[in-house]
Amino acid sequence: MATRFGILGAGGISRRFASVLKECGCAELSAVAARDLDRAEAFAREFGANAAYGDYDALLADPAVDAVYVGLTHNLHADLVRRALLAGKAVLCEKPMAVCAADARALADLAREKNLLLMEGMWTRCMPAVRRATQWVQKGVIGPVRLLRAAFCFDAPFDPQSRLFNPDLCGGALLDAGVYPIEFAMGVLGEHPVETAGVQLPAETGVDAMDLFSMRFPSGAMAELSCSISLALPTDAVILSARGSIVVRDFLRSTRCELYDSHGDCVATFTEDVEDGFVYEIEHFCALFESGAKESPLVPLADTIACAEVFDALLRR
Predict the structure, then answer these.
(1) What whole-number distance in Å separates Cα of residue 65 and Cα of residue 57?
(2) Which residue intervals of the chain are DSSP H helices?
(3) pTM for this one?
(4) Element (H, E) at 27
(5) Integer CA distances (angstroms), 69 to 66, 219, 230, in order
(6) For 254-279, how does the pLDDT look when each residue is reduced to its tens digit (9 = 90+)?
């Protein structure tokens, strides 16, 4: 039986989610809600939703909706996730699920109390190439990791009212882009940082336009990470040890990873092409929902909370 989704929000990320959803045999679009009913109805016609609402709570009350995808701006995520859980819906929330650790902990506790599936939409963790690189690391193929480097940096036109630069919408590089290298590092290493330090370059609106930061992990591994909404950088991630290294090409939407020995010779590669990586996230969530699981092993709630703790540490500075 297909998982029946309701989508909160009719913006760009919701459109991407809905277009991929149509290609997944495990899911169907049951309803969409936006603050503008006309916009929701146009979205429903385009993507074949059965219902459209001009009110988020009306969708949450729809018995034909099994699970909710939250595709709104960062400042609205935690509240809409909370309302969806209280309405008895499983939830897949676009990243970041919460912009502070207190909210992340509260949502995880509520999901467990209500016995409902809750997952942050960290779709990159579901990509086969990232999963293969993670397996190589966690099987000890290159030995203990000493350094991980990753960056997600792009150059966006400055618009003080846009979601990227508006502080009222929880804009800034860390929340929009930095979440990816943070969660990539935690997922690959299988642990949470015990120390975080960094520097930031502010935009005119006061949000962070660029962040350079490092994390230290219990195993002794270090992560050197960066994110930006004002400067583009390459997105290949590198995982280094004394016995070799792993390169994840374009880790954000990776289709290829490479294993190197200590001499720098490539000894193994993994490749799997896909038109849009959202398909892996949707299929994973649907499999969890159909099995009755309440949490993802690929994107555990503990990682979502630990990532929000990094937000707290860096944004306070």
Answers:
(1) 12
(2) 12-21, 37-47, 56-60, 74-86, 101-114, 128-138, 173, 179-189, 278-291, 301-316
(3) 0.96
(4) strand 27-33
(5) 10, 35, 29
(6) 999 999 999 999 999 999 998 899 99
- Cross-strand partners of 71: none
Q: What is the pLDDT of residues 139-177, one digit of tens each?
A: 999 999 999 999 999 999 999 999 999 999 999 999 999
Per-residue pLDDT tens digits for 13-65: 999 999 999 999 999 999 999 999 999 999 999 999 999 999 999 999 999 99
CB 96 within 8 A of CB 74: yes
Is residue 63 helix, strand or coil?
coil
Q: CA–CA separation, 161 vs 236, rounded Å?
A: 31
Q: Which residues of 40-62 are buried (b: 16+ CB within 10 A; e: fewer)?
A: bbebbeebebebbbeebeebbeb
Of 22, 89, 95, 294, which one is the catalytic site residue?
95
What mean pLDDT, rounded, does the chain reach?
97
**Hey, how many other C-beta atoms are within 10 angstroms of the C-beta on 91?**
26
Q: Tokens at residue 280, please?
A: 């892996």
Task: Give the pair of three-digit tokens for residue 296.
Answer: 């993802």
Write the CB contacts of 14 (distance below 8 Å, at least 6 apart in sequence): 7, 8, 32, 43, 69, 71
22 among known catalytic residues: no
- For residue 104, the Cα-to-chain-centroid distance in whole angstroms is 14
| Pairing verdict, β 208-216 and 195-202 | antiparallel
> How many residues are given for the chain?
317
Please give the structure tokens belonging to residue 301. Answer: 């709630």
